[in-house]
Every structure is written in structure tokens, then in C-alpha cells.
């Protein structure tokens, strides 16, 4: 089958991806130190807005961003794994492979737990810094959620390590460059190019996600 | 007879051990309650400082809110010296109080005294004067920080 160079990751999905990397790195850097707590909350809001955007984009976005198109079930994931270590060439599909799909779900799920628990916490060494929902839970619940927040971050670090190692593995051993496409959006694929959703729709979804987070941060 | 004596002794020892364990557990429990209460009080400090900062720096709230917050620091703070009974240092419950408090009690008390003085000064400020409020607020913040730097665990 002839290969064609087409857009596999639309701009919104790429902005989401690198934005999430930025926000997670930022919230890691500002965690632990109570003097940086206010900045930590800002990075958290950024991650939440990105997450909300991505979940909606996973339903109404471009083909390769849709959960329904890339979550193909454990059997497909197993088959992919066999191809990866077998002699047959990997098929050059656009978008996530069936195994990577689970990594995506795990990463998004962990980010959700991470941000979700953070909303209920409070801290600050001298001036109280409160998550927007902190006032609605008692101290015991808050202490428990703090443990959740810390545990989720350990798991998130493990998942990110798996994610990056897997990408390195594809690059080194399966001769498949995944980083380039996530930067430029373009890759060589067989068959029909994925259908792309309109940038206007992405803008509307992004405004919605940003609006929800803004309302949560200022009104709650 | 000896056998009965043996059983009685064993029973007594067991009972003593139980009472002892329960006693320690209860002491541990009261210590944990003390720590929780202390943290709740400090959290009130933090909340008051949030109101004061919002008022002086970002123009949120009213002079009355700021005055009330300063009053909280004075009234709640008055009891600070009673919040640190022995046996409530780091390691018990969620305490972040460094053991140095109990070995340098005189210095700890001095840091507490400078906080009390700064809080009273803040409470007496003319709250419609935002610059003066801001300055007095900064002084209080400095006394909180001075104590935390020496006696509160950094995480
Ligand atoms: C900071 C931690 C990171 C997190 C939380 C993260 C998270 C994610 C998520 C959620 C996706 C799914 C994207 C989507 O479908 O919208 C993804 C995909 C991807 N990420 Fe990351 N990422 C991280 C770091 C990195 C780094 C450092 C690289 C580059 C070395 C990278 C390269 C990629 C690539 C190439 C894909 C597409 C994978 C595929 O084709 O299946 N990521 N990442």
C-alpha cells in the first residue's frame, strides 16, 4: 500500500500534549514548598483545563483524538504486542496503537485523580492557600485526600516513565519515530488520512474548558 | 497451690500490661487531639492572614473584615504557649513541631512574645490606612516566619 505523509495529530491535541507536559512539570517543581503553593495551584488549574478539553475532544475531535477510534480492546493490544516483538512489520496506522491507548487512558485517569484531589486541599505556611473546594470537606477527609494526591503523583511519575521509555523503545528498536509527529503533527501512513475536526470547534471547546476552570477558581 | 499462684500472677501481669498499653494509647490519643487542635488554631491564623493580605495588598473586603481578622490573631494567639505540651513533637500524629521547641523553650517563648506584640500592634492599627495595615501585616508575617524557620518542620 502506498504511504502518504498526512496530518495525524491535529494542532489542538499537540497543544494539549505539550501543555500538559509543561503544567505537570510546573506543578511538580512548585510542590512541597509552601511558599510556592499559589503557583502550584495555577499549574493545577492549567492541567485541569487541558484535561477537560481533552476529554471533550476525545468525543467530538479529530479521528485520532477520539477515544472510540483508538480504544480497541485487550485483544487488539495483545496482537500489537506480538507484532512488535515478532518479525511481521508493524502496520503504519495513524494515531495511537491499541496498546498505547491504555497508556493514554491511564495517564488521563491519573491526571484526573491528581487534579481532582488537589481541588479539596489547603495549605500555605503563613497565608492560607486553599483549593476552591477545600471549604466543603472536613479535616479528616482533607488529610485522606492529601494522601491520595501524593500517591497519585507517584503513580503518575511511574506512568510517565513507562510512556517515555515505550516511545524510546519504538524509536530505537521498532524504528518508528513517535516524537516527530507529536511535534509537527505529520507522519507517513497507509490508507485514508484521518478526518480532522475544525479548529473553530477546538476553540469553542477550549473556551468552554477554560471558562469552567475560571468559574471554579474564582467563584467557589 | 503454686500452680494457682502462677495463674494469678500471670493474670495480674496480663492485666497490668493491658492497662499499661491502654494508658499509653490514651496518652497517645490525647497528644493527637492536642496536635489536631493546635493545627486547627494555626489554620485560623492562616485564614486571618489571608483576609489581611487580601485587604492590604489586593483591596478585597472591608476595614471591618481586616480588623476582625487581626483580632482573631490576638485572641486565638493568646493561648499559643499552652499548645505545646511535651510529647507532641514530630513523630506523634501529624505533628510538624520540631523537638528543638522543648530544648530551647526560652527562645521559643521569645519568638512567641514577638508575635504577640506584633499582632497587638496590628490590631490597633487604623485599618482605613492601607499602607499602615500593610506594614503591620508584614511585621506579623515576619514573626510567624521567624518561629517556623526554627521550630516547624520543612517538608
Ligand atoms: C510530563 C509527562 C507526560 C505526560 C503526563 C504525557 C501524557 C501524554 C498523554 C495523555 C498522551 C495522549 C495524547 C493524546 O491522545 O492526546 C501522550 C501521548 C504522547 N506523548 Fe506524552 N506525556 C508526557 C511526556 C512526554 C514526553 C517527555 C514525550 C517525548 C519524549 C512524550 C511524547 C508523546 C508521544 C510521542 C505521544 C503519542 C504516543 C502514540 O503515538 O501513541 N510525552 N502523552
TrEMBL record, chain A:
Determine if Chloroplast is one of this entry's keywords: no
- Where is this chain primarily localised? membrane
- Membrane-spanning segments: 12-30, 42-60, 99-121, 152-173, 202-219
UniProt subcellular location:
Cell membrane
Keywords annotated in UniProt: Cell membrane, Membrane, Transmembrane, Transmembrane helix
Biological process terms from the Gene Ontology for this record are: respiratory electron transport chain
* Cited InterPro entries: Cyt_b561_bac/Ni-Hgenase, Di-haem_cyt_TM, Hydrogenase_cytochrome
Gene3D superfamilies membership: Transmembrane di-heme cytochromes, Chain C
Q: How does it sit in the membrane?
A: Multi-pass membrane protein
GO MF terms listed in the record are:
electron transfer activity; heme binding
Please list the residue ranges annotated as the Cytochrome b561 bacterial/Ni-hydrogenase domain.
8-185
Concerning SUPFAM superfamilies, the annotation shows:
Transmembrane di-heme cytochromes
Highest taxon above the source species: Bacteria
A single GO cellular-component term on record: plasma membrane
Q: Which PANTHER family match?
A: BLL0597 PROTEIN, NI/FE-HYDROGENASE 1 B-TYPE CYTOCHROME SUBUNIT
Q: List the protein's name.
A: Cytochrome b561 bacterial/Ni-hydrogenase domain-containing protein
Species this chain originates from: Aerophototrophica crusticola
TrEMBL record, chain B:
Binding sites annotated in the UniProt record for heme c: 144, 147-148
Q: Signal peptide position in this chain?
A: 1-27
Pfam families found in the cross-reference section: Cytochrom_C_2
Q: Specify whether Transport is a keyword of the entry.
A: yes
Q: Which GO terms describe its biological process?
A: electron transport chain
**What's the source species' lineage?**
Bacteria, Pseudomonadati, Pseudomonadota, Alphaproteobacteria, Rhodospirillales
Q: In its UniProt entry, what is this protein called?
A: Cytochrome c
Transcription: present as a keyword of the record? no
Identify a single GO molecular function assigned to this protein: electron transfer activity
Q: Keywords of this protein's UniProt record, alphabetized?
A: Electron transport, Heme, Iron, Metal-binding, Signal, Transport
Its cellular-component GO annotations read:
periplasmic space
> How does it get modified post-translation?
Binds 1 heme group per subunit.
Which top-level group of life is the source organism from?
Bacteria
Amino acid at each position: 500500500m502506498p504511504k502518504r505523509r498526512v496530518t495525524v495529530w491535529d494542532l489542538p491535541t499537540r497543544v494539549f500534549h505539550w501543555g500538559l507536559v509543561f503544567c505537570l512539570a510546573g506543578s511538580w517543581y512548585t510542590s512541597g514548598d509552601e511558599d510556592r503553593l499559589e503557583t502550584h495551584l495555577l499549574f493545577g488549574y492549567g492541567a485541569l483545563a487541558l484535561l477537560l478539553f481533552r476529554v471533550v475532544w476525545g468525543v467530538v475531535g479529530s479521528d485520532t483524538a477520539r477515544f472510540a477510534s483508538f480504544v480497541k480492546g485487550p485483544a487488539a493490544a495483545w496482537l500489537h504486542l506480538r507484532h512488535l516483538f515478532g518479525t511481521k512489520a508493524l502496520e503504519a496506522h495513524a494515531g495511537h496503537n491499541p496498546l498505547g491507548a491504555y497508556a493514554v487512558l491511564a495517564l488521563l485517569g491519573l491526571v484526573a485523580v491528581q487534579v481532582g484531589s488537589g481541588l479539596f486541599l489547603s495549605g500555605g505556611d503563613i497565608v492560607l492557600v486553599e483549593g476552591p473546594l477545600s471549604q466543603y470537606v472536613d479535616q479528616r477527609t482533607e488529610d485522606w485526600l492529601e494522601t491520595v494526591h501524593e500517591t497519585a503523583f507517584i503513580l503518575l511519575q511511574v506512568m510517565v516513565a513507562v510512556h517515555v521509555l515505550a516511545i524510546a523503545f519504538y524509536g530505537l528498536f521498532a524504528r518508528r519515530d513517535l516524537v516527530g509527529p507529536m511535534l509537527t503533527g505529520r507522519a507517513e501512513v497507509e490508507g485514508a488520512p484521518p478526518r480532522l475536526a475544525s479548529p473553530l470547534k477546538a476553540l469553542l471547546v477550549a473556551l468552554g474548558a477554560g471558562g469552567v476552570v475560571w468559574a471554579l477558581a474564582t467563584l467557589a | 497451690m503454686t500452680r494457682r499462684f502462677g495463674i494469678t500472677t500471670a493474670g495480674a501481669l496480663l492485666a497490668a500490661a493491658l492497662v499499661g498499653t491502654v494508658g499509653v494509647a490514651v496518652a497517645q490519643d490525647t497528644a493527637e487531639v492536642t496536635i489536631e487542635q493546635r493545627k486547627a488554631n494555626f489554620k485560623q491564623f492562616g485564614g486571618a492572614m489571608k483576609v489581611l493580605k487580601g485587604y492590604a495588598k489586593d483591596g478585597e473586603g472591608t476595614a471591618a473584615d481586616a480588623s476582625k481578622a487581626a483580632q482573631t490573631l490576638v485572641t486565638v494567639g493568646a493561648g499559643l504557649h499552652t499548645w505545646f505540651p511535651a510529647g507532641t513533637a514530630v513523630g506523634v500524629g501529624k505533628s510538624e513541631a520540631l523537638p528543638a521547641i522543648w530544648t530551647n523553650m526560652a527562645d521559643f517563648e521569645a519568638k512567641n512574645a514577638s508575635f504577640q506584640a506584633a499582632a497587638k500592634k496590628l490590631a490597633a492599627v487604623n485599618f482605613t490606612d492601607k499602607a499602615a495595615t500593610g506594614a503591620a501585616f508584614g511585621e506579623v508575617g515576619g514573626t510567624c516566619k521567624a518561629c517556623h524557620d526554627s521550630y516547624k518542620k520543612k517538608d
